[in-house]
Every structure is written in structure tokens, then in C-alpha cells.
Amino acid sequence: MTLHSYVGSNTTIRGNFECKEDFLVEGAVEGNLSSQGLIVLGKDSLVKGEVSAKEVAVSGIVVGTVRCRERLEIYESAKIIGTIQAPVIKMAPGAQLNARVIMSGKTGDVELLSQSSRNSYPSLVKATN
Fold it and tell me: Do the Cβ atoms of 111 and 129 come closer than 8 Å?
């Protein structure tokens, strides 16, 4: 694996960060991250926003949404608060989740729906054709 971009541990980005290749985040991001490849979130990383990529590996903290087209790997030091959408999830013991998890064959197969106040057990996902 060759990482093409790097956000250092002493760096805070406010805004969106987009890269066509793989990249590593060791610092803080207040905004959205996206890649056509792999996003690696290091042990000391903090992301407040959406993380969207082909593959994502999380060792730090994400507050927001994680969307993967192929695979999400969650390491023992990771903490995710929000929503996870991925067809394959690998999670190490010790990882912490407080998230809605949506799994499907392809991430395009599901559409997130808002909760209905009239139904005590709302449908959270709807299959799309």
C-alpha cells in the first residue's frame, strides 16, 4: 500500500478533503473526507463529518457517517459514533460503536431513510432497484 496524502498529528483541517488515491489521517478533520481508494484513520485521529471511500480503516474516532463501497476495518482503539454503511465490516475486540449499521451487497443497494415519529419501530432502510 502506498499512501499518497497525509494529514499529520499536529494538523487540523476545517473543510472537505478529497483525494483520488489512498491517504492517512493522524490529525483532526472537521468536514468530509472522500477517496476513490483507501482512507486510513490513525489512532490519534478525530473526524467530525462523513468518511467515504472504497475502503476505510479506523483506529481513531469518527463522529458522523462512514460509507465504504467495499470494506470497513475497525481496530480495537477505534470509536465510531453515527452511521456506518458498508458491505463488509471487520471489527476487533475492544472497538467501540454507537452507530446505526447498514450492510448490503453494495452500498448503492440501500437508501437511508429518516425515522417516522408515527411508528415506534421505523424502517431505517429501503431496498432500491
Answer: no
